[in-house]
């Protein structure tokens, strides 16, 4: 066996993950090959480093998380405990908050007419506003002619348009 | 009490034994999910789903088989599903979240080294594909044999060997490229 062939299997050889026959072939080769021995040492070194890191960087269950999960498994009716959903953001609470927000929005911002009548909010102002509109409409109905005047700043020329009800017009300069 | 007996009791309705059955694996299952997902909160979510499945499908557990292997199988499969879902949603662990990890652990003196280890490990493991990662973690992290790893993952032994060899080579080259050549970045 040459180095090139041996090095293909060294990643498995150093942790005894090869079959018996292949293992023996590599053993014979590496006994006289310092390059392959160095390769094995490098694999071992990286393996040791990773092992140390794996031991160092481990996570643990906090508080009663593990117990809650087991209880949930035993009682599937229990709601899912998601780490992304602390209590204020659970569905029920979210729905209640949304409902409250909608009610407040409709009372204070949109103010629908039936609600306003019910609560007696702004009834006077709307009545006076309605009256004002009605009188304006009456005025327009009574009016026979409409005058429109345009004065030129440079020449002082004045143009007056007089419209009758049907918007036919006379010009007077 | 043997695991087989515990399983039988749970299946007979005495579900208080479930805690006893799961207790030896509560940390190892969480950690394998953590290494697969790369995030502690996501690992907890994966574990939660896996525990629910273990309880739900306990009747499918074959008598005489290793419960540990079976539990690992469920967690690894759940991790695969999670990673697939994450890839589909293109949900990436946000930088903001990583910053929080740093801020949370920055008080003690060794906090920086812990954070660096976390990042270094993540950099090495996320060079691997999910399959390579699971093979590497089970064989080299949890010290399962090739045969056990194959049975947990549902691969053939030769496929496990191929993935393992590739994973070890990738990790070694990543380590040598990033951490072993510059003395300043050497982590003790």
Describe the structure.
The complex is a heterodimer of chains A (173) and B (188). With 173 residues, chain A is mainly alpha-helical. Chain A has helices at 3-13, 20-30, 34-56, 65-74, 91-110, 113-119, 123-142, and strands at residues 146-151, 158-163, 169-172. Chain A has a three-stranded antiparallel β-sheet, with no helix packed on it. The radius of gyration of chain A is 45 Å and the shape is elongated. The mean pLDDT of chain A is 78. Chain B folds into two domains: 1-93, Orthogonal Bundle (Rna Polymerase Sigma Factor, Chain: A); 127-183, Winged helix-like DNA-binding domain superfamily/Winged helix DNA-binding domain (Arc Repressor Mutant, subunit A, Orthogonal Bundle). In chain B, 72% of the residues lie in helices and 0% in strands. Chain B is globular and about 60 Å long. Classes of the chains: A mainly alpha (173), B mainly alpha (188). The interface between A and B is large, with 37 and 44 residues.
Q: What tags apply to this protein structure?
A:
heterodimer; A: 173 residues; mainly alpha; 3 domains; three-stranded antiparallel beta sheet; 7 helices; 59% helix; 9% strand; elongated; B: 188 residues; Rna Polymerase Sigma Factor, Chain: A; Arc Repressor Mutant, subunit A; 2 domains
């Amino acid at each position: 066996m040459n180095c090139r062939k041996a090095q293909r299997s060294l990643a498995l050889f150093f942790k005894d993950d090869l079959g018996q026959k292949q293992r023996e072939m590599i053993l014979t080769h590496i006994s006289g090959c310092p390059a392959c021995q160095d390769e094995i040492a490098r694999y071992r070194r990286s393996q040791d480093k990773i092992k140390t890191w794996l031991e160092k960087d481990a996570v643990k269950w906090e508080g009663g998380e593990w117990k809650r999960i087991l209880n949930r498994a035993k009682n599937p009716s229990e709601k899912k405990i998601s780490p992304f959903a602390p209590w204020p953001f659970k569905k029920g609470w979210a729905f209640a908050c949304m409902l409250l927000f909608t009610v407040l929005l409709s009372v204070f911002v949109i103010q629908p007419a039936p609600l306003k009548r019910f609560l007696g909010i702004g009834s006077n102002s709307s009545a006076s506003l309605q009256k004002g509109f009605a009188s304006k409409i009456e005025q327009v109905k009574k009016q026979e002619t409409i005058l429109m005047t345009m004065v030129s700043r440079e020449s002082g020329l004045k143009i007056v348009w007089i419209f009758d009800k049907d918007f036919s017009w006379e010009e007077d300069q | 009490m043997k695991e087989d007996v515990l399983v039988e009791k749970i299946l007979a309705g005495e579900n208080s034994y479930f805690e006893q059955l799961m207790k030896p694996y509560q940390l190892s299952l969480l950690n394998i999910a953590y290494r697969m997902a790369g995030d502690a909160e996501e690992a907890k979510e994966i574990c939660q789903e896996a525990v629910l499945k273990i309880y739900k499908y306990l009747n499918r557990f074959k008598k005489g088989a290793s419960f540990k292997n079976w539990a690992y199988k469920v967690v690894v499969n759940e991790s695969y599903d999670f990673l697939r879902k994450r890839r589909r949603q293109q949900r990436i662990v946000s930088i903001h979240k990583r910053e929080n990890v740093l801020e949370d652990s920055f008080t003690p003196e060794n906090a920086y080294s812990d954070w660096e280890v976390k990042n270094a490990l993540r950099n090495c493991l996320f060079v691997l594909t999910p399959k390579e990662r699971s093979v590497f973690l089970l064989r080299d992290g949890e010290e399962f044999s090739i045969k056990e790893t194959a049975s947990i993952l549902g691969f053939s032994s030769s496929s496990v060997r191929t993935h393992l060899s590739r994973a070890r080579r990738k990790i070694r080259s990543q380590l040598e490229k990033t951490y072993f050549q510059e003395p300043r970045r050497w982590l003790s």
